């Protein structure tokens, strides 16, 4: 009797494993979800500065010198525009995501503007 129970449990575990293999996303799909695609925009420095003044200075300072958040005065030396876009869109550490507050194009414009600061 125990052999039948063990065989049944083994068969159920194998069936469950097969279902998971086809149901879980692959590495490529996970990587795609983790890195949001930055839309192509033309850099508008004035618009980027306005967005930064409205949303970023409370944590990063009025001159982007840092405060609660890190200094962004040389953000481009550490990250390219796509990395900055990803950080602002998804958030990182104590920084919240801004995908609900800003349009993707606004985030992309700010990311390009910050990437030029080296």
From TrEMBL:
<dbReference type="GO" id="GO:0005506">
    <property type="term" value="F:iron ion binding"/>
</dbReference>
<feature type="domain" description="Cytochrome c">
    <location>
        <begin position="43"/>
        <end position="118"/>
    </location>
</feature>
<feature type="binding site" description="axial binding residue">
    <location>
        <position position="60"/>
    </location>
    <ligand>
        <name>heme c</name>
    </ligand>
</feature>
<dbReference type="InterPro" id="IPR051811">
    <property type="entry name" value="Cytochrome_c550/c551-like"/>
</dbReference>
<keyword id="KW-0813">Transport</keyword>
<feature type="binding site" description="covalent">
    <location>
        <position position="59"/>
    </location>
    <ligand>
        <name>heme c</name>
    </ligand>
</feature>
<dbReference type="Pfam" id="PF13442">
    <property type="entry name" value="Cytochrome_CBB3"/>
</dbReference>
<dbReference type="GO" id="GO:0009055">
    <property type="term" value="F:electron transfer activity"/>
</dbReference>
<feature type="binding site" description="axial binding residue">
    <location>
        <position position="95"/>
    </location>
    <ligand>
        <name>heme c</name>
    </ligand>
</feature>
<keyword id="KW-0408">Iron</keyword>
<dbReference type="InterPro" id="IPR036909">
    <property type="entry name" value="Cyt_c-like_dom_sf"/>
</dbReference>
<keyword id="KW-0349">Heme</keyword>
<dbReference type="GO" id="GO:0016020">
    <property type="term" value="C:membrane"/>
</dbReference>
<protein>
    <submittedName>
        <fullName>Cytochrome C</fullName>
    </submittedName>
</protein>
<dbReference type="InterPro" id="IPR012218">
    <property type="entry name" value="Cyt_c_BACSU-c550-type"/>
</dbReference>
<dbReference type="GO" id="GO:0020037">
    <property type="term" value="F:heme binding"/>
</dbReference>
<dbReference type="InterPro" id="IPR009056">
    <property type="entry name" value="Cyt_c-like_dom"/>
</dbReference>
<keyword id="KW-0479">Metal-binding</keyword>
<feature type="binding site" description="covalent">
    <location>
        <position position="56"/>
    </location>
    <ligand>
        <name>heme c</name>
    </ligand>
</feature>
<keyword id="KW-0249">Electron transport</keyword>
